[in-house]
């Protein structure tokens, strides 16, 4: 007698609703670049190279968030798994390389994995790798800009949804925007036991915060400046890297780290139909990274309609992980 080992190989399904090469995307960029205080939404940091550079940032000695979050998740893995219970779809917001979610597979055993990311090419590569390692896992991949709207296709299981929003990515939004985003997630949880597992960076001393965004190896500088190469491609603009330097600072009143690109000298940037002059020292604001006190973030979850909120942190009180039920 011999046992038969059956493996059902389910090919991943892709739904791509974000297309970078569209008029709407260029219009969004133009509006920010031509504003008196120029800015670019941080999602434009994530072209294929930008996503790789972010991966490198997570390995830097100064960049504590990723490893601190990972340590919290590992230390409280049993408690977290017990609270979360049976997972239908594990919906991974800003999945990137899918590595953080993969760490949950062992304990949470999701019946379906739904990575969502705006960096669609990068996501496809990550999903192909994941599928090779977990051929039986049902994967529904969404190339989506969920900063506009989060919309899940019908084949996403609707019972026991677990939204996973790790790494303090929620910090890219102002508290008002974050509330809107959390309300959307609350809505998408449905009424069949949905919940949210989210990582949030905490307020701490300015030096630690600024170093995390201005590392000695200058990987974060490369990550920020690579945005210009991305803009050159999307807008057919003529940004020259040599004209721009990386800047990181902490605004304590707003409880946020900011990244900017600062012009070294007066410079004119051109793209079809437009040009924008920058004076020496003028900046393009490329990212906000809000930091929260745990009580403030719990209040935000509450205001978004979540309840039964659990909180875990590390010994230094540097990072928070929350689980909240819809
Ligand atoms: C991915 C948005 C959480 O804000 O810390 C890392 C991005 N920017 N270094 C963060 C980032 C500069 C990161 N998030």
Write out key terms for the chains shown:
globular, 13 strands, three-stranded antiparallel β-sheet, alpha/beta, binds N,N,N-trimethyl-histidine, 10 helices
Briefly summarize what is shown.
With 326 residues, this protein is of the alpha/beta class.
User: CATH homologous superfamily of the largest domain - what is it?
Assistant: Vaccinia Virus protein VP39
**What is bound: which ligands?**
N,N,N-trimethyl-histidine
Strand percentage? 15-25%
What would you report as the Rg, rounded to the nearest angstrom?
Answer: 20 Å
Structural class: alpha/beta
Note poorly predicted spans: none
Largest sheet: 8 strands, mixed
What is the CATH level 1 assignment of the largest domain?
Alpha Beta
The count of β-strands is 13
Which term fits the overall shape? globular
Give the mean pLDDT.
95
Quickly count the domains.
Answer: 2
Oligomer status: single chain
Give the terminus-to-terminus CA distance.
Answer: 49 Å
Binned, the helix content reads 25-40%
> Helical element count?
10
Walk me through this protein's architecture.
The chain has 326 residues and is α/β, with parallel strands linked by helices. The protein folds into 2 domains: 11-19 and 58-204 and 291-325, Vaccinia Virus protein VP39 (Rossmann fold); 40-50 and 214-290, no CATH class. It has helices spanning 23-34, 48-57, 64-75, 77-84, 99-108, 120-133, 175-188, 206-212, 219-235, 294-303, and strands at 13-16, 89-93, 112-117, 138-143, 162-165, 195-201, 244-251, 256-263, 267-271, 274-278, 283-290, 307-313, 319-325. Strands 1-4-3-2-5-6-13-12 form an 8-stranded mixed β-sheet, sandwiched between helices. A hairpin with a 5-residue loop joins strand 12 and strand 13. Helix 2 (48-57) runs antiparallel to helix 9. The longest helix has 17 residues, at 219-235. The chain starts with 12 loop residues before the first strand and ends with a strand.
């Amino acid at each position: 007698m011999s046992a038969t080992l059956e493996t059902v190989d389910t090919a991943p399904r892709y739904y791509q609703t974000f297309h970078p090469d569209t008029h709407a995307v260029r219009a969004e960029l133009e509006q920010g670049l031509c504003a008196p205080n120029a800015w670019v939404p941080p999602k434009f940091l994530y072209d294929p190279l930008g996503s790789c550079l972010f991966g490198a940032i997570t390995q830097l000695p100064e960049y504590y968030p990723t490893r601190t979050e990972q340590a919290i998740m590992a230390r409280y893995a049993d408690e977290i798994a017990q609270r979360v219970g049976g997972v239908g779809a594990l919906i991974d917001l800003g999945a990137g390389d899918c590595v953080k979610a993969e760490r949950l597979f062992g304990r949470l055993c999701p019946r379906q994995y739904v990575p969502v990311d705006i960096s669609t090419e990068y996501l496809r590569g990550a999903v192909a790798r994941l599928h090779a390692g977990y051929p039986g896992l049902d994967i529904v991949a969404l190339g989506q800009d969920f900063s506009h709207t989060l919309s899940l296709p019908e084949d996403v299981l609707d019972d026991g949804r677990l939204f996973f929003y790790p790494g303090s990515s929620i910090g890219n939004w102002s508290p008002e925007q974050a509330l809107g985003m959390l309300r959307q997630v609350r809505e998408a949880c449905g009424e069949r036991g949905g919940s949210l597992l989210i990582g949030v960076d905490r307020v701490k001393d300015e030096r630690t915060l600024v170093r995390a965004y201005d590392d000695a190896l200058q990987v974060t500088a490369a990550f920020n400046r690579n945005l210009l190469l991305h803009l050159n491609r999307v807008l057919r603009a003529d940004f020259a890297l040599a004209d721009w330097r990386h800047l990181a600072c902490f605004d304590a009143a707003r409880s946020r780290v900011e990244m900017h690109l600062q012009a070294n000298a007066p410079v004119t940037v051109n793209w079809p139909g437009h040009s924008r002059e920058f004076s020496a020292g003028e900046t393009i604001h490329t990212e906000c990274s809000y930091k929260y006190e745990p009580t403030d973030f719990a209040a935000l979850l509450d205001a978004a309609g979540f309840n039964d909120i659990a909180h875990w942190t590390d010994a230094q009180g540097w990072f928070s992980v929350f689980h909240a039920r819809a």
